[in-house]
Amino acid sequence: MTPEGLAGLHARCFTVPRPWTVSEFGTLLAAPATVLTSQPGGFALGQVVAGEAELLTIAVAPAERRQGLGRRLLDLFLAECAARGASAVFLEVDAGNAAALGLYRSAGFGQAGRRRAYYHAPDGTATDALILRRATGPALP
User: What is the crossing angle of helices 69-83 and 98-106, to 10°?
Assistant: First the structure.
């Protein structure tokens, strides 16, 4: 996917936090540590550094949700991170995002930390961010 395609899909999926720009995606794609997995309708993007990976964002087009695409993208991302030498993957998710939490927990992620009042909505409300972690081996049953 191109930076333009990534930014367009990201804008359809996110308002808070704000969607990333074409320039931000371009910068990430130019970095050798970046891992991008994509399929029509979605992508997962992160980085592998010093034996650890971080999932920075995952986006699935609204019309493609609840059909397993997010899980396929996540599984591909985890496999690529393992292939690049990562022993663990971290991510951050809004504590109120039940759909994302369900996906990550079903893939074997567990809570490693919490950032209180990390996300701020336009109306001034704040929600916590959960830091999740899992090893890059097979997901737990």
Answer: 50
